[in-house]
Amino acid sequence: MARGTGERLTLAAVLGAMGPGLLAALAGNDAGGIATYSSAGATYGYGTLWILPIMALLLIVVQETAARCGCVTGKGFASLIREKFGVRKSALAMAALLIANTAVTISEFAGLASGLALFGVPKTISVPLVALVIWLVSMSGSFRRIEKILLLVSCVFLTYVVAAFLVGPDWGAVAAATVTPRMVASPGYVSLLVATIGTTIAPWMIFLAQNNVVDKNVDESGIPLQRVDTVSGSIIACAIAWFIIVTTGSVLYPAGIEVSDAADAALALEPIVGPWSTVLFAAGLVAASFLAACVLPGVTSSAICEAFGWERGADRSWDEAPVYRGIITAVIMVSALLVILPGVDLFEIMMSAQVINGVLLPVLLVFLVFIASDRLIMGQYRNGRVWNVLTWATIVLITVLTVVMFVLQLLGF
Amino acid sequence: MNYLSEMLRLPVIDAAGEKLGVVNDLGIATGEVFPHVTSLAFQGPGKTPFMISWRKYVDHLDDTGVYLKAVSTDVRFSYLQPDEVLLARDILNKQIVDTQGMKVVRVNDIKLSATGAGQLRLLGAEVGARGLLRAIHPAFERTVMRLAKLTGRPLKEEIIAWSYMDLLERSTQTIKLSVSHKTLDELHPADIADIIEQLDPRLRGQVFAQLDTAQAAEAISELDDDELVAEMLEGMSDRDASSMLALMDPDDAAALIEELDYEKAEKLLRLMGVKEERAIRTLLGYAEDTAGRIMTQEFVALPATATVGDAIDAIRRLDEDFESVYYVYTLDPVGALTGVLSLRTLIVADRDARLSELSYRDVVWVAPDLDQEEVADEMTKYNLVAIPVCDEARHVLGIVTVDDALDVLAEEHEEDLQIAGMGSGESGAAGESMHALSWFAQRSYWVLVWAIASGVIAAVLTWMGVDGSSWFIYPMGVMPVVLITASRMTSFVRGFYLEYDEREDEGKPYLAFFLRCAGVGAVLALVVYLCGQLVLGAAFPEGSLEPVFVGGAWDVTAQTTAQVLTACFGAAAAVVFVCFLGAVGYLKLLFWRDEHDRNTSGIALNVSAVLIACVLYAVAATLGVFLVVA
Description:
The complex is a heterodimer.
Chain A: H1 11-28, H2 31-44, H3 51-73, H4 77-118, H5 123-140, H6 143-154, H7 159-167, H8 171-179, H9 187-200, H10 203-216, H11 223-255, H12 262-266, H13 270-273, H14 277-308, H15 322-340, H16 346-372, H17 375-378, H18 385-411
Helix pairs in contact in A: 1-11, 2-9, 2-11, 2-16, 3-9, 3-10, 3-11, 3-16, 3-18, 4-5, 4-10, 4-14, 4-15, 4-16, 5-14, 5-15, 6-14, 7-11, 9-16, 9-18, 14-15, 16-18
Chain B: H1 4-7, E1 11-13, E2 19-29, E3 37-43, E4 49-53, H2 54-57, E5 58-62, E6 65-68, E7 84-86, H3 87-91, E8 95-98, E9 103-106, E10 109-114, E11 120-126, H4 129-136, H5 138-150, E12 159-161, E13 165-167, H6 170-173, H7 189-197, H8 201-210, H9 213-222, H10 226-235, H11 238-247, H12 250-259, H13 262-271, H14 274-285, H15 291-294, E14 300-303, H16 308-316, E15 327-331, E16 337-342, H17 343-348, H18 355-358, H19 372-382, E17 386-390, E18 396-401, H20 402-419, H21 436-444, H22 446-463, H23 473-499, H24 510-539, E19 548-550, E20 553-555, H25 557-595, H26 602-629
Parallel strand pairs in B: 1-6, 14-15
Antiparallel strand pairs in B: 1-2, 2-3, 2-7, 3-4, 5-6, 8-9, 8-13, 10-11, 11-12, 15-16, 17-18, 19-20
């Protein structure tokens, strides 16, 4: 364990620390992420690229804050909210988390269904079966055993990086689009921005980042290494997103293909793998969605039970932890049922879940920023001014975008 | 005004009717069973915090506010006393240990009671659902209460009295708590271990640090989770860890040291006293799972010529933390074991009687390299609470006491249960009457495998270009036979394994088992094949297999179908037979894992067998269908 005095940032320590963040970054590019980025690239070309560098910075701020809170207090985010803000406000925070995470779980199921549909399995068969498997896995808490395999499979999205180079876009235009902010006054564009923010800085990532630190019992002396981890993870997550948008923006946008289902999105990989693009894309989509769908109900339920003091953990039986198990079951059932409903547009679901995520994110960020700047809780490790300003800026940015989105929709653009 | 949640934010009004601020917190003196509220903290204008003495200034309180006896100018402010605890700051919303229910809980509300003349006492912390509902809104609580009563399951308050609370947070640890207060460190070490397991890693370390070394030593040897033990030892300073290990019984200490990496273990051993170090090293010298590992060197042995009085004096002189004495052993002049006396014999006998006259000579003893399970079996057989461990010359090396033997038995039982596929949950429910979930996971998951495999076969057949996708129903129809047979095969293996009595000099009975399985497999395969013939005979009676000339072409569907069915049943029979041929592999695996002291889950065994059979069958059947149809 990292202890006090003799600690130096050796290369080995830095490389070792980068592990969890990288994994989280890869896992973060789940069904909703792929759908959102593909759609952004296909519909607006390079028009949304400029948001990604900003996202990387904000993601670093949020993840670093969460990990730092974990290091200093040794408690989960849910515990901190409850102890600082009491029952009523934690009920609000937990409701936000529950809704956001259920939305994401629904989108993961939609991802699974559309990924398997590419293999020719209809969703009425795939969703109940997969839901059952996911339920069993998250009940027994054994997803860690399959985690690595799934992560490996979901690495196929790294092919977007290669694809981007093979497509050979106009790099000058790409670079220019990355640094010049651009707004289009249409609800579609604004909601895509909100969705991009929501899927990049998902509320559940805050909880997961802090839990990881708490479970490992890292103390204040571990903060520098945690920073290395969060920074590298965040940058890579956003870089992958950036490459996805570049690829889809170069392949699908000029061809005028609007991404309306997973098969369309898979077309973006055609230049590099040809006819295998569907298989590759579907495998990645299924693995990434499955991984996230196994993790999310557990994270949600664990946070809620932590806040309200109910027993939690996969090693507790139904009798000992009825609420914990009940919430997991309910989240999975609701998600599966919604996706199965005839006539729902799976791709639409993946996108709107990210919008919900984005809209609810400010609620949890407000809690995070108050906790992180509290002198009593954080002592000398409380937020500096820059961090506070950046977090508040994120909150304001998303809130403004949300309001704009709703107003545009109301005005009927 | 019974709850803290209702009191917070009430206005504080002085004798002149002027509002001074709103209630922020209440301070209690910790020295009583039901502590008095001693101070009132309130927030004045501009968020300035004030604190005044409750006893001196508060006149009465009701729903509308807290009324003071004096006017604002006469009120003198006070400070928090060292023995005072602030309810909202230190207890509300925090995690506490319920030292009666042995649980870690979160405080949702705090219940107070008015005791005449405006005085308040703390009754306890509300940790149940009602506290949560009330904190969200009192009306919400009332509605839910009414609904609950209608459904016939009224919500009860869950109150933990102050005397059964232990605070965990570091801000309050410095506060000296009352005498009447039952704290964590007064609990039985096994209970402390249970509570520690429920905490987050950080709190775990803090709570552990509160215990004194002797308690920590006992608590840590009660922890069930080996990883947790290693983690706790890593977290302590080497000196503390070492002195804690030295305090433990050497056999427990040896078991813990084993969990650590070599360097750390060596460091800790070297920091100990010479005596303890030697005792632990001796034990570590014996192989794992042998009598030598769990024996203690703390026993009473005297020359056979000594008197009863000598023996009793010897016992009186023992240290306080000496292992419990159940028997006194007698030795001949060269130190070999000659007899044993129970404590009862000693107490009843004359002080002058010689031990050799009273002792029971036919002593049961075991060698240090005997397997622990067999030691436990010996103790059960002869009804002993301790059994001596001797070398070839009958020199007593140590004794194995009943507590360690019980641990061995419990562990063994758990392993067996796990292999039998029961899991080892705390609920301890044996047999089949479990939750639907675990029942499904253990017994009926094959339905899932069936469904998924059928889908895969269908997909593969389509991909291979077999016309008409309906062909997959034939392999699908036969598949359950294979899956269930594979599943039962593993239960056959583990039944054999659990029943098998290991004898020292014999090899493992692999060949006999293999032959037996091959026999069973052949019979089953034959039955499956014959069933296939039965189905064929019934579905396609004599003559129906001739090609029919329909619409200008020969229709051979019936013929092909019959061939597909034959292929499927043939594949099933073959796979069943192969499965049983492979059974001996599972037996070998079980024995191997047992020798290397690894636990094996019966469910994992079962699942792997079913999956292997499923894959074999799917490949065989798919190929069969493909060859016939194409």
